[in-house]
Design brief:
heterodimer, A: 114 residues, mainly beta, seven-stranded mixed β-sheet, B: 111 residues, six-stranded mixed β-sheet, four-stranded antiparallel β-sheet, 12 strands
Chain lengths: 114, 111
């Protein structure tokens, strides 16, 4: 059972480059989300989706785009990377509609912007 | 808006010591409360949860009680082990599946 799979695990980019962080889950979860983790700030929500074709902004959406064409996949796009986007990115999924259901996290993508 | 505040770390203890990591929250209504744990190089894993006032969540020797009167959800363990070394996050959910995290507390247990 793969759970939530994130690729790549590590990436170094130059300022201004674009890239896509991949996230896939095999649990048929409707809800998926992206967080960034920065020292001393916990995890902050970037974007989330409650189902295929539906996305919405979280706390820190600027500089990131998402789409949800299938239930399984929820890629995160950096349009023009900036050093402030250096962080560890986590994707998570859970069943929708049950507020006390835990979210399942991937192992993260460590991204450095030079 | 909703928020979670954890005690600042890092916390360093000796093996078999008693552990408390404080967590308080601000929310309207009745959120569900969680503790997540992150081991080095890994994603977050759910450690325990409580969904209503006075509920006690427990797992792997850890416990936390949902205290609405003090808006707290402190994490405790009676005797920690080296393998408990990790970063611990307190979090809440209130509607729409949006998790709100505390800043995390790094715990190191020395043998």
């Amino acid at each position: 059972n793969a759970g939530v799979t994130q690729t790549p695990k590590f990436q170094v980019l130059k300022t201004g480059q674009s890239m896509t962080l991949q996230c896939a889950q095999d649990m048929n979860h409707e809800y998926m989300s992206w967080y960034r983790q920065d020292p001393g700030m916990g995890l902050r929500l970037i974007h989330y989706s409650v189902g295929a074709g539906i996305t919405d902004q979280g706390e820190v959406p600027n500089g990131y785009n998402v789409s949800r064409s299938t239930t399984e996949d929820f890629p995160l796009r950096l349009l023009s990377a900036a050093p402030s986007q250096t962080s560890v990115y986590f994707c998570a999924s859970s069943p929708v509609g049950a507020g006390n259901q835990p979210q399942h996290f991937g192992d993260g993508t460590r991204l450095s912007i030079l | 808006g909703n928020s979670v505040t954890q005690m600042e770390g890092p916390v360093t203890l000796s093996e078999e010591a008693f552990l408390t990591i404080n967590c308080t929250y601000t929310a309207t209504g009745y959120p569900s409360l969680f503790w997540y744990v992150q081991y080095p190089g890994e994603g977050l894993q759910l450690l325990l949860k409580a969904t209503k006032a006075d509920d006690k969540g427990s797992n792997k020797g850890f416990e936390a009680t949902y205290r609405k009167e003090t808006t707290s959800f402190h994490l405790e363990k009676g005797s920690v082990q080296v393998s408990d070394s990790a970063v611990y996050f307190c979090a809440l959910i209130q509607g729409a599946q949006k998790l709100v995290f505390g800043q995390g507390t790094r715990l190191t247990i020395n043998p």
